[in-house]
């Protein structure tokens, strides 16, 4: 019997397969005993590009970003990332962003970057819920502001998608675009784990795959209604690699 592949393949007819390691929710903190250095060394041997899907730091403190930047010196391949909600916690998101960009990270927040003929499109995303149960813009201004933020993230994703010039595209999110990959989390918190608005945007374009984090107790694999493969790569989620990171070939 053939061994089950540890690598997800999302080919779209292009030559020159690119191996992408993807992991989210490192939650680097100042007291961490475990450094990410060994992990970054390992993925450098396994993949061509590393993608980090947000919650890079635990509390969004500049010192945490510095620790991550120092650990990333062990990473010999290009790094693409988005921020997560935890990276906003201390109100120092500009400092965190600058520290990581100075360390060479392609930190995407509504932009695209092209590496090895693959287009990477990144936004954090936002909450709002899924399908027909999605939060609507009705009632108090605070609710409307919440929905507006969710719509805004989807529009920023759309604008970034329009900049892509490559045939292969990886969408990088923190929040989930579908409910399928958050299954396993308590039902009560599904609306805080992502938004279908992201999937609606994704399905208007041709994408090779989508990666996200945030749902630590979710499941690895799902699809948008339009058929785009979606992978929850939060480091706590069990993956075919048996490692904290996923390996995708696109
Ligand atoms: Fe997280
Ligand atoms: Fe998160």
Automatic annotation (TrEMBL):
Pfam families from the UniProt entry: Metallophos
All copies of domain Calcineurin-like phosphoesterase, residue ranges: 19-217
Record key words, sorted: Hydrolase, Metal-binding
InterPro entries named among the record's database cross-references: Calcineurin-like_PHP (IPR004843), Metallo-depent_PP-like (IPR029052), Metallophosphoesterase_sf (IPR051158), UCP008292 (IPR016538)
Lineage top rank: taxon: Bacteria
Record protein name field: Icc-related predicted phosphoesterase
